[in-house]
Design brief:
It is built from 15 helices and 16 strands. With 482 residues, the protein is an alpha+beta fold. It folds into 3 domains: 293 residues, no CATH class; 114 residues, no CATH class; 58 residues, Arc Repressor Mutant, subunit A (Orthogonal Bundle), CATH 1.10.10.410. A 9-stranded mixed β-sheet has the order 2-6-7-10-1-11-12-13-14. Helix 2 packs antiparallel against helix 3 and helix 12 crosses helix 14. The model has no long low-confidence stretch (mean pLDDT 93). The protein binds adenosine-5'-diphosphate, magnesium ion (MG) and zinc ion. Adenosine-5'-diphosphate binds next to strand 1, strand 10 and strand 11. It catalyses: L-glutamyl-tRNA(Gln) + L-glutamine + ATP + H2O = L-glutaminyl-tRNA(Gln) + L-glutamate + ADP + phosphate + H(+); L-aspartyl-tRNA(Asn) + L-glutamine + ATP + H2O = L-asparaginyl-tRNA(Asn) + L-glutamate + ADP + phosphate + 2 H(+). This is Aspartyl/glutamyl-tRNA(Asn/Gln) amidotransferase subunit B. Its EC number is 6.3.5.-. One of its GO terms (biological process) is glutaminyl-tRNAGln biosynthesis via transamidation.
């Protein structure tokens, strides 16, 4: 049997930490990185008698994401207790949603090899995060752990996909698009290192043509796109190997070891948790009415996929460009502001994708904080278009324009970079060059037309790259031939 006979089936569970100022059931701050246990109160410490009060903003954000993912927004949903014991969970249960979540049955489209593919979203529900354990010392040296409850009860949305994803690469495309949607909605900062966007991946394999799903394993807490891709690829190969070898895949939770590039069993089904869910008695069923949903619907921004489609139809840009431009809302805004002033979308897109992105990346600045404003980029492009400077000079001064935020016009004047478009000045230089290279001139006239480039180079050298290239080519050809 060869491995090509198999296909992968992947379903993803994403946890997105919400950008609310306060926690989901109390007024404590959600700020990352405070003094341990300084953002706590009786409610998020789980002290007896403390009662949860639902943060309305969390519901706003859940509805927002639900609408963006084309879900049904359930007018009534229920909070439930998910019971298990762990030191970072002071109540002995996590408040989550189970049988009746707020959003169900949506989808997210991604671009796959130039075509749209729809990944169905099973549910989006609200829940609280757990605290954090800090392990000190080693097992040998009488180790101990400290617990920090600052993260306890920070609001999360869990987004569960249907098993519609077929390859590790596709999983990453889905996750990137979902992250972009969250960023566009401004409800999550998407920071994977700090854990504000994290993913558990369920994966199984089956023979092509078979419709039943295979037994799946779950990969936990993958905190980078690269790890997700690598661990899924490893796990699919491992499962295929088990089946080809005559064995059976065991349903279990596995952890990815990045150094070894392999996954390891963490717990099997036998030890799987029975969470004994039941409705949270301290919270009423949540009802949202049509007005609430409509109000949120009206506040929705244009989403990444809509923006990509519009950039293609309205501005005639290729898909390659729009995927880059729309992957970051600030960059898309920067682009649109610039074409408002210099209405040549493809030219603007080229400059943004090459020169601007290079500078933004190397300086680690966001488009919104770019020292080179859209107005200044447009001004630069006008200078090039009207022949004041050459493209070459434009690219040369770009890094300085970016760093100094001076106007392109004044920099060009200050540095004396004005393109020479004065015929007589160019002709004078051409004559000098021709005098200096009689042999090359003779060769050219004898048929070695390729030498034109050599003469262009010589004139450019003399004018320090400032001769108008179009004019120079014309004048030079005329002069050499005649
Ligand atoms: P549970 O309730 O056990 O967590 P769910 O039905 O909620 O299971 O599924 C969890 C995730 O696993 C979903 O993203 C789903 O798409 C995915 N999934 C379910 N079955 C399979 C399978 N056989 N192969 C791959 N993914 C699966
Ligand atoms: Mg689940
Ligand atoms: Zn609190």
């Amino acid at each position: 049997m060869d491995h090509g006979e198999f296909e992968g089936v992947i379903g993803l569970e994403v946890h997105a930490q919400l950008l609310t100022d306060t926690k989901i059931f109390c007024g404590c701050s959600t700020k990352f990185g405070g003094e341990p246990n300084s953002h706590t109160c009786p409610t998020c410490m789980g002290l007896p008698g403390a009662l949860p009060v639902l943060n309305k903003k969390v519901v706003d954000f859940a509805v927002k994401l639900g609408l963006a993912l084309h879900c049904d927004i359930n007018r009534r949903s229920i909070f439930a207790r998910k019971n298990y014991y762990y030191p970072d969970l002071p109540k002995g249960y996590q408040i989550s949603q189970y049988e009746e979540p707020i959003c169900t049955d949506g989808y997210l489209d991604i671009y796959l090899d130039g075509n749209k593919k729809r990944i169905r979203v099973k549910r989006v529900h609200m829940e609280e995060d757990a605290g954090k354990l800090v392990h000190e010392g080693t097992i040998e040296s009488s180790s101990y752990s400290l617990v920090d409850y600052n993260r306890s009860s920070v609001p999360l949305l869990e987004i569960v996909s249907e098993p519609d994803i077929e390859t590790p690469g596709e999983a990453v495309l889905y996750l990137k698009m979902l992250r972009d949607v969250l960023l566009y909605l401004e409800i999550c900062d998407g920071n994977m290192e700090e854990g504000s966007f994290r993913c558990d991946a369920n994966v199984s394999v089956r023979k092509k043509g078979v419709s039943d799903l295979g037994t799946r394993t779950e990969l936990k807490n993958l905190n980078s796109f690269r790890f997700i891709e690598r661990s899924l690829a490893y796990e699919m190969e491992r499962q295929i190997g088990v089946i080809v070898g005559g064995g059976e895949v065991v349903q279990e939770t596995r952890l990815f070891n990045a150094e070894e590039g392999a996954t390891y069993s963490m717990r099997g089904k036998e030890e799987a948790h029975d969470y004994r869910y039941f409705p949270e008695p301290d919270l009423l069923p949540l009802t949202v009415d049509d007005q609430w949903v409509d109000r949120i619907r009206q506040s929705l921004p244009e989403l990444p996929m809509e923006k990509m489609d519009r950039f293609m139809t309205e501005h005639g840009l290729p898909k390659y460009d729009v995927e880059i431009l729309a992957s970051d809302k600030e960059l898309a805004d920067y682009f649109e502001e610039t074409i408002g002033l210099f209405p040549e979308p493809k030219t603007v897109s080229n400059w943004i994708m090459t020169e601007l992105l290079r500078e933004l990346k190397s300086g680690n600045v966001s488009p919104k904080r770019s020292p080179l404003s859209p107005a200044n980029l447009a001004e630069l492009l006008v200078l090039i278009k009207d022949g004041t400077i050459s493209i070459k000079i434009g690219k040369e001064i770009f890094p300085e324009l970016f760093r100094s935020s001076v106007s392109p016009k004044s920099l060009v004047e200050k540095k004396g970079l004005l393109q020479i478009s004065d015929e007589s000045a160019i002709v004078a230089t051409i004559d000098r060059v021709i005098d200096r290279f009689p042999k090359e001139v003779a060769d050219f006239r004898g048929g070695k037309e390729k030498l034109l480039g050599f003469f262009v180079g010589q004139v450019m050298k003399e004018t320090k790259g400032k001769a108008n290239p179009k004019l120079l080519n014309e004048l030079l050809a005329r002069r050499l031939k005649g």
